[in-house]
Specification:
The chain is built from 6 helices and 13 strands. It is an alpha/beta fold. The longest helix has 19 residues, at about 25-45.
Amino acid sequence: MGNVYVFDHPLIQHKMAILRDKNTGTKDFRELTKEISMMMTYEATRNLPLKDVEIETPIRKAKVRMLKGEDIAIVPILRAGLGMVEGMQAIVPNAKVGHIGVYRDPDTHKPIEYYCKLPSDIASRQVFVVDPMLATGGSAAASIDFIKERGGKNIIFMCLIAAPEGIEFLQNRHPDVDIFIAAKDSHLNEHAYIVPGLGDAGDRLFGTK
C-alpha cells in the first residue's frame, strides 16, 4: 500500500491557513499555491537516486553527489493543477511537463477525460501527478489510470488538501502510489466538496466563478 504523507511544517501550515481564507485574493492565492508546492516538492523528492561524480572546485578536485538522472515529469490535472507547476519547476527546472484534462460530471461526480498529453518517455520518469484538491479521488485515480495506460510506472500524487474519502479511494485504486498532502481535512459534504476546504481551487487561482 502506498504511503500517505501529511505535512506538519509550520511554514506550510501558516501558508495553508492564509490560502483557505475567503478574503485571500487571486494574486495572493496563486503565489501561496506556488510557494506551498515548492516546499512540498523539496520533501517529496527526498528519495530521488543519487550518483557519485567528480568535479573541480576553485580549490581542488572533489567527489560529490548529484542526481542520478533528471528523469522527472510533472503532470497537472487541468485546470487547477496548473497552479502547482511553477513552484515545482523552481525545484526541478529540467522536469518535463505533461497535462491531463479531467472534469467531474456535475450529476454523477465521475471523471471524464477530455485531454491527455504526456512526455513520450513517461515510462522511464518519476511522475508527479498534481492537483490542489483530493476530494472524491475520482479525478486523481482516473488520471493515474491514463498515465499507467501510456506506460507510466513510478507515480506520486501531490495535493494541497485531501478528504479522507479521497485518500481511501485513491489508495484502493492505486495502492502503489504515494500521496503527499499539505493538509488532511474532515470530510466531504453533500456536494462532494471538501470541508472545511478552501472552495473551488480553479476559480480562486484564475479569478473565475
